[in-house]
Design a protein that fits this description.
Order of helices and strands: EHHEEEEHEHHH
Strand order of the largest sheet: 2-3-4-5-1-6
CATH superfamily of the largest domain: RelE-like
CATH topology of the largest domain: YaeB-like fold
Number of helices: 6
Number of domains: 2
Structural class: alpha+beta
Mean pLDDT: 78
CATH class of the largest domain: Alpha Beta
CATH architecture of the largest domain: 2-Layer Sandwich
Length: 180
Amino acid sequence: MSDRAITGIHFTAPAIEDLLGLKKRHHTVLALVFKKLHYLSANPGAGLRLAGDLSEFKKVTVRNRAWRIVYKERLSADGLILEIAEIWGIGARSESAIYEEVRQRIKEIPAGPLTVSLYDVLLMLQEPKFSLAAPATSPREPVPAALRSRLITEMGLSDSSLIGMSATEALELWERHIRG
């Protein structure tokens, strides 16, 4: 066990899509994924470092090692606190498909990707028909502070232009920006 502590678990947009897929097809696995994330937050040393081109990532297994959660750690400046476990992929082990998926995501997502907190993801998953492309009539969750900051500092948007924007709309705007 590590003497470090995880102060937050965050998900990349593709990892949220992975969760949505589990919600639709594998409810039992989804519950086990959240149980494993809870375990990981209390035991940051639990994951195993991956090798090769994924060496900056770690994995934890779920359900008799049939499923994988692939994540990246972000340490505080002093290296003592594991500030964020950044979830990049959740999927079946079969023929290493989840690892290939993460490799593709690395190519598509810039370093330091926009992420959504575990709390916000749990709220999203409670919506009966939630998707990352939710209709405008869906309830509006506020734009998370980290996303708001990136939209203002990196895209040059004004704070007033974000008023009334949902977290989903802000995330879609950011994704369009990073994809060019």
